[in-house]
Amino acid sequence: KACPGTSRELLQRNPDYLQINEILLISDQEFLPCHIMDQHWKFYAECEELTF
Amino acid sequence: MAEAGKERAVVGLPELGSTQWPLQRYGRFMPAGAGESPVPGLEAGTASSQNWKVFESSEESGYLVLTIVVSGHLFISQGQTLLEGFSLIDSKNWLKVVRRVDCLLFGTTIKSKSRMFRVQFSGESKEQALARCCSCVQSLAQYITVQVPEGIVQELRPPKAGE
Q1: Residue of A nearest to B149 (CA)
Q2: Is B100 in Cβ contact with A52 (below 8 Å)?
Q3: Which of B147, B156, B51 minimizes the C-alpha distance to A30?
Q4: Per-residue pLDDT reduced to its tens digit, A1-52
Q5: What dihedral do alpha carbons B59, B61, B62, B65 form, nearest 10°?
Q6: For residue A48, how many other CB atoms are within 10 A of its CB?
Q7: What percent of chain B has pLDDT over 70?
Q8: What does the angle CA A16 – CA A20 – CA A26 come to, to the nearest 5 degrees?
Q9: Number of H helices, E strands in chain B
Q10: How many angstroms separate the CA atoms of B29 and B49, rounded?
Q11: Which residues of A touch B82 (CB under 8 A)?
Q12: ipTM of the predicted structure?
């Protein structure tokens, strides 16, 4: 299962001791234009704590 | 170091050249209703908890682990599922990392598209989680500068002591 366009974010070499048998691909919803993400980034990077 | 049964220690695998840290949580930034188009009147970060798809370490869903291999590869996995996997080599052009107490925030930009994810380290105490986070930052620092925000005391100390 491969997702074109995101290959650089996916693993290329996978040490077998991790015992990976599945990859949770990145959905389109997670990708934002840089200038939008920059605003979100600024907000979270300036939080005192990243409370989940 | 005493270990609770469910708690995985920071594991060094020298023969394999990798280090692993147990994580409490992993979150992918996934803004509700966000698409290609800019949001009018966007207030960045509002309704923050709704904007993250959060994965928790648990017996049922599997334990979250962050792995850094000496080859410079970083992996985040939960059980046998790979959540993140990329090379840290020459990553400073597309990757940024910020530490916030026992959490790390990652931002990536590739082909003018950005995404964010974050992790929280686990520990029997906040101090242990913080120590693991800092140990991971040290490993990351071989490849990339981890920003520590200005003006915030990041030292380990009791809360509200001597403010």
Answers
A1: A46
A2: no
A3: B51
A4: 444 444 444 444 555 578 899 999 999 999 999 999 999 999 998 887 777 8
A5: -130
A6: 10
A7: 71
A8: 130
A9: 1, 10
A10: 10
A11: 11, 14, 18, 20, 22-24
A12: 0.72
A45 → chain B, closest CA residue? B98
CB B20 within 8 A of CB A31: no
Chain A CB contacts of B99 under 8 Å are: none
In whole angstroms, how far apart are CA B136 and each of B49, B56, B108, B144, B153?
25, 19, 18, 12, 19
B78: amino acid identity, one letter: Q
Backbone phi and psi for residue B77, each to the nearest 5 degrees, phi listed first: -135, 155
Q: Quick check: A8 and B14 in contact, CB under 8 A?
A: no
pTM of the model: 0.76
Cβ contacts (< 8 Å) between A42 and chain B: which residues?
44
